[in-house]
Design a protein that fits this description.
Layout (H helix, E strand, L loop, with lengths): L2 H10 L3 E3 L11 E3 L1 H20 L15 E4 L8 H7 L1 H4 L1 E6 L6 E3 L4 E7 L7 E5 L5 H13 L9 E9 L10 E2 L13 E4 L3 E3 L9 E3 L5 H6 L1 H7 L6 E10 L14 E11 L4 H18 L7 E5 L11 E7 L10 E10 L1 H8 L2 E4 L2 E4 L18 E3 L4 E3 L2 E8 H12 E7 L5 E7 L10 E5 L6 H13 L4 E3 L5 H11 L3 E5 L1 H6 L1 E6 L5 E5 L3 H9 L1
Parallel strand pairs: 3-13, 7-9, 25-26, 25-27
Antiparallel strand pairs: 1-2, 4-5, 4-10, 6-7, 6-8, 11-12, 13-14, 14-22, 15-16, 16-17, 17-22, 18-19, 20-21, 23-24, 27-28, 28-29
Bound molecules: adenosine-5'-triphosphate.
Length: 538
Amino acid sequence: MQMEQLVALCKRRGFLFQSSEIYGGLNGFWDYGPLGVLLKRNVKDAWWNDMVMAHNELVVPSGAPSTYEMTGLDCTIIMHPQIWKCSGHYDLFHDYMVDCRETKKRYRYDHVLGRFVNRAGGRTPGIFVTTLETGNTQAALDEAALKFFGLRKKDLETLQWEGGIRSISTLGKDFSNVLGPDAKTHGTLTEPREFNLMFKTVIGALGSDEDASFLRPETAQGIFANFKNVCDSTRVRVPFGIAQVGKSFRNEITPRNFTFRSREFEQMEIEFFCHPSQSAQWYTYWRDRRFAWYTEMGLAGERLRMREHDADEMSHYSCGTADIEYQFPFLPPGEFGELEGIAHRGDFDLRSHMEGKLVKEGDGLVVERLPNGQPKHRGSGKDLTYYDDLTKERFVPHVIEPSAGADRATLAFLCEAYQVDTAPDEKGQPQERVSLKFHPRLAPIKAAVFPLVKKDGMPEIASEIYGELKKHFSVFYDDKSAVGRRYRRQDEIGTPFCITVDGQTVQDGTVTIRDRDTLKQERVSRDELVKELGQRLG
Ligand code: ATP
């Protein structure tokens, strides 16, 4: 499937629009249209239902070490700024970037690698040629240097390299001798600038910088900040999870790939609190449970994979991290994009909010301190330990965090659902057909109701049926154009079933129900429709 086709369909049929389109759009922001809002809501509802509402805390789920409880929260987007200082986002969530005035490209400062080079007998210190290549960096630098000096491959020997390969972040601020990746002339890189990925905002009409806060870059911190409230106000016992769905904001440097990397997006996160002695087993349980959820919702096959992080990829507090990834069609062949990360976060989060921002020291975590001995970012000082009144043990629970993106999941379901096949038209001729083969739980419209023709009492019966079904399902009524075209229009938006009122309905009260995927039509009594659709939708 070509991504452009899906993007065009999303616009044409009202799944996704560029935000502020009438003013030329706003990079990294997307609006969900009339069908998109239904689809995304179904994704979030399926997640919430399967993780929270339908979870039975009396039964040990397959693969889980024990029973557990699930509960939910809905926290504010703007929180006390100290939350982001203790969580580490304030210090870590920024990148330094350089722009190239010649190529107009923007690079992560520490990702640009290079080495000083000169032609035989050339001036010192030469030119610092650069590349982003991390595989065979020297080969890429050879190529860049030959190109810059206008030399051929056979002249490679005449190049004089000085010093080792290093990042431009080691050069200080003078980039006059630096040749940017892909640039023809040197000295075109700007000074590094800080891009804070957190959106800053000011609280109150007369707000000064002291009143600055941030739009949350993740929903997780609201859960940690309310851990004690949840324990004190409910009868939940460890192990238990708190789920939250909500907006997050990141001032991404290069938003791209449709909604995949947006600046405003929605997350579906669980923070699962457990005893440290069981956290490794819970990590495995959640990793597998979340992977299974995507397959249950229709993302099976080789486009979905689970990838465990190597030790050097993991955050300093994590004892295990896995990503659930999908092979989005906009990525180069063989590349996968993250849908969800599942991380074993140890006691990092609760301790940070008790003690202050933590850093790694040896094998443990200690409060980061200023030269005067004061904590760099002071914690709340509140007791966030958990007391188990059965075992009489007090401890800081470990956290397992399955963190998913609602927009990325929605996009993956759209990509997976998009299919082109052939189906006979009303004259029995095979025609190319575009359909979105959504799982029935995710389909924005569950069934469409048609009168075969606009006469002979059919519209009256069809509108009655429509009214009955509407009390139970998201349904759509259509009496315009030939019935074959109406089927196509529903296939294209992923409606699993079409119900048609025809001449026979008038006689015996039966209607046809057509399946989007098998194209089979069966006759069903109109009185049985609510039950029948309920069963088919699962
Ligand atoms: P990436 O490496 O792709 O930037 P991340 O590892 O920073 O993602 P997390 O911080 O783990 O992402 O966030 C959890 C989930 O939130 C991601 O798996 C993704 O589904 C979603 N997410 C994160 N950033 C974005 C974004 N800019 N746009 C849309 N969804 C996002």
